[in-house]
Amino acid sequence: MPAQPTYKNTDIEALRALAIVLVIMAHVARLLPSDHWYMNVVRQAGFGFGVDIFFCVSGFIITQSLVNLMPAGPDLRRFLAIARPFLIRRFWRLMPSALFWILALLLAAAVLDGTGTLLSFRDSLQPALTAALQVADFTFSSCRDAGKCGEFGIYWSLSLENQFYLVLPLLAVCAGRRLLPFVFLAAFAAQFFIERQLTMPTPFLWALRTDAICLGAFLALVSHTRLYRELEPTMLRLPLLPLALLVYLVALMARISVPQPAIAYAMGVTALLCGMLTWIASYDRCYLTSNRFVRTLAVYVGSRSYAIYLTHMLAMSLAAWLAQHGPLSGLAQALGPGVAVTAFLGLTLLFSELNYRMIETPLRAYGKRRTARMMPEEGLRGQEA
């Protein structure tokens, strides 16, 4: 049976594109001098909440892809029937790309050995191992405080997502489709009042936050209800209103994502606002992508957002090395940090496009073929996360 074509909700793709742009905005400061004007921006506004948007969108899409396969009530006999094809598809969708770029970072560390923004090869071995084993979220606080995460630090989020994927099929058969929304809502509520801002020392729970993922999963489970349909924000059909709302929510989340936020429980509020954006996008009404150019750009960047996330730290290290130690480093330093930033963006686009075309897309298709006969046809439909 041929695999069903993947359908693109362009508003969801727009949120993915927004999320990766915010991540780039958060990390690009590493290439800039301390007196650069952009450093004042990142002191007043944090952009790391792009990861929370990723979490919420992923929780929504992945849970939605399983809704039709979930039993109405607890039924442990369904576990293998659901978990096996689901986890196989997840593995081929995510892990080959992740492992490839972990090895690429190790190779770069061996060659450059502590220059650029890379750790030495020896110091890279432990964070590379935790990243490959998908436990980087449990070690993130200690390695960050010791300054030993290096370019592998970004793998805490992938580790957390993959752990969620491991647990999701078990929760589905233990709670069933009827009770599972309450499980995720309770998990979200339990974390809301925990203060987990990214300070020093690093809070252990900062890298274990699942509130945005749980909220996305909750939205997926209630998206088939009558109440969900009745609550559709149809007022967003008004011209410019979606853009104004998006700008306001992004600005608000940026302002409360600093280490000392103006409001209490900023992480919980951020997850809630990410949930609001995902809720708007979940209706697939092009509220955020009514413009054709925006829609095309969102699909392109959104489809490559995972590849961009994996590759941008290596691109940053190579750009820093070229600016500091490369053959034209003198000219690059004379022209200013814009040269390094331009090289970083160019390398990121190049690496991510190669990953998307040569690793991610063919191996995702392979995973679909491997599981085509394991799941009912309805379980193969939907947008890939």
Automatic annotation (TrEMBL):
**Acyltransferase domain span:** 10-352
Name the enzyme's class: transferase
User: PANTHER family, per this entry?
Assistant: ACETYLTRANSFERASE, ACYL_TRANSF_3 DOMAIN-CONTAINING PROTEIN
Checking InterPro entries in the record gives: Acyl_transf_3_dom (IPR002656), Acyltransferase_3 (IPR050879)
Query: Which keywords describe this protein according to UniProt?
Result: Acyltransferase, Membrane, Transferase, Transmembrane, Transmembrane helix
Mind telling me which residue stretches traverse the membrane in this protein? 12-29, 49-70, 91-112, 164-194, 206-223, 235-256, 262-283, 304-324, 330-351
Q: Does the UniProt entry include the keyword Nucleotide-binding? A: no
Name of the featured protein: Acyltransferase family protein
Q: What is its EC number?
A: 2.3.-.-
> Which top-rank group of organisms is this from?
Bacteria
In Gene Ontology terms, what is one molecular function of this protein?
A: acyltransferase activity
Keyword Transmembrane helix assigned? yes
Source organism of this protein record: Massilia suwonensis
